[in-house]
Amino acid sequence: MKIFNLPDDIFLDKKILDSSIIIHHYTANADSFKERSILNRNAISLVINGQKTMHFAEKTVYTNDKEIHFLSAANCIASMDISRNKIFESILIFFDDKELTDFYISNSAFIDKVSNSHKLPAQPYIAFEKDNFINNYILSLLLILKSSTPFSLQMKRLKLQELLLYLLENRPAALLRFQNKKTLFDYELTIRKAVESNLSSNLTLDEIAFLCNVSTSTFKRQFKKIYDASPNEWLLEQRMKLAAQMLTKHKEKPGEIWFKLGFETHSGFTRSFKKHFGVAPKNYAPI
Q: What dotted CATH number matches 3-175?
């Protein structure tokens, strides 16, 4: 699977990439896809139409047209099924750490007041529900992007700061939790987060290792130290436990849960379940 470096692989013009802020109108009309990406800058995803699932080491982010999302620079795996929506459309604002730092410094007095009155644990991914201001803000970006006049850095900075300032004044505690992930987590913490937040995804071991930014062999070796089992054994055990809960506690049908648990086919799920519990999912009853 090809690895996309974002925003680098979007633009051929080096002058664009040299800018500390890039605003891009993105559309896709394929039926579905899954891709590995390295997000080299922080980004704001302003979805206009459609949905996208983004798997990071810490969590899975579901971007949709009801929210906007702040994303820290990191490795991710994005998947999208737009067969029902026909087209996926969004505006992406890429920006470097300095732009965010400069904004925080210029508004430090207000930020200090908020920080003193709220506990603000750092979060690499933040979502905000759209409101009238944000909807009009997106329209303003579309108008500028569709004009023949190039987006100057001054205008891009003004538009980025406009959104940041609005969120700072109206949703300060949420915005100030956003923080780029610069701390080097130890292998155990990183792997635990990546594995346990993706139990019900259909990511391969190679893909989960990619999210941890380690080789597959290193991932398997560290996994064994942490869980005292191979990744395949442990993941299957956890997914079978989830399957049993879904069947009994939540009264879901086998045909409704196999995909939720990351199995590629219904028959593959049934075989694994029967091998693990000795009975088919439809006949399962807890002891």
A: 2.60.120.810
